[in-house]
Amino acid sequence: MSILVYKVSKSLGNSKILDRVSLYVPKFALVALLGPSGSGKSSLLRIIAGLDHCERGNIWLNGIDMTNVSTQYRRMSFVFQNYALFEHMTVYDNISFGLQLRGFTSQKIENKVNDLLNCLRIADISFEYPLQLSGGQKQRVALARSLAIKPDFLLLDEPFGALDGELRRHLRKWLKRYLQDNEITTIMVTHDQGEAVSMADEIVILKGGRVSQQGNPKNLYDQPINYFVGFSMGLLIEIPESDQSISSSNVDKFGNSKNLKKFASDPIWVEIFANRSIYKYRFFLRPYEFCIKSEIDPESTPVQIQTIIYKKTFVQLDLFVNSFLWYFTIPMGYQAFRNLQVQSFAQILYIKPRIEVFLRAYPMLIN
Prior knowledge:
- This protein has helices at residues 41-49, 91-101, 106-119, 135-148, 165-181, 193-199, 217-222, 227-232, 258-264, 270-273, 334-340, and strands at residues 3-12, 15-25, 30-34, 56-61, 64-65, 76-79, 153-157, 185-190, 202-207, 210-215, 237-238, 281-285, 290-293, 301-310, 315-321, 326-332, 348-353, 360-363.
- The protein is of the alpha+beta class.
- It has two domains: 3-232, P-loop containing nucleotide triphosphate hydrolases (Rossmann fold, 3-Layer(aba) Sandwich), CATH 3.40.50.300; 237-363, CATH 2.40.50.100.
- A six-stranded mixed beta sheet has the order 6-7-8-3-9-10, sandwiched between helices.
- A hairpin with a 2-residue loop joins β4 (56-61) and β5 (64-65).
- InterPro entries: AAA+_ATPase, ABC_SmlMolc_Importer, ABC_transporter-like_ATP-bd, ABC_transporter-like_CS, P-loop_NTPase.
């Protein structure tokens, strides 16, 4: 049950919402649409569902052109951001509604609905009405209603946006497993890069109504096509900035950064640069490509601790390398931070690149 979006375009007045967007979702796969607000993610979902029409392009479902076919014939479920629950029905009736229309027996309906209520942890509100529910509860009811009919295709618009913490992590794992077990082809819109990476078989990055890049999460994370895609997939650490505003004494007679040249020729870092044009590009690494430790190491670069910030799931270290005038941030898990045995801000740490890194190079002018 594959989905093919082919050169889909849509405008609102003089503004292009979608501009020749093409993407492919293999059968039973989960593809995440990732991008900033206004990039066209939700509009694309509505066109795939048949709720909106495109000006150009085609929507193919399982090899059949369904561009002009009504929503009811697309065998598709859609979880809206506003939930779209039936306000006059209880939670149980909302979830069972589609099964009743399809003529399922009372026993099958009861078994299916109760199973979803338990899995989504909403069994205790099964006889309440939508107006009595929190946003997170409504979101889970809408998801349960969409899954109950076992659609061929499922479209999710920020399905966990109202959830947080352990429940959100639990439902990510549960939903991914459920979709695989029931062979449902899925497109999910999210702003959460971590959610996209943990759930999706492939990620599509949208910007300004266009596809910037599509690929599996690892490839997009390690080898993004440009800075926008790279930043969308997680933290990029620039090494060291070629910003010439630091001091005129750090610029040679050709206007190039002495600081960057010094860094690129340093024995510890020189191998990752190869023969790159260091003054034409900005270079970035991912946090995992740094080796950081507290033991003195002559083959590593000494680094000073500026600040330590404790987040929910990680510790953020703001660091400074005096020899290169290089400020950067490294996030790390709590156990890795404990292993460093940091005693004070005066303590010196040591960094170097790991054996294999992907040095990402983007032109100096970044759009």
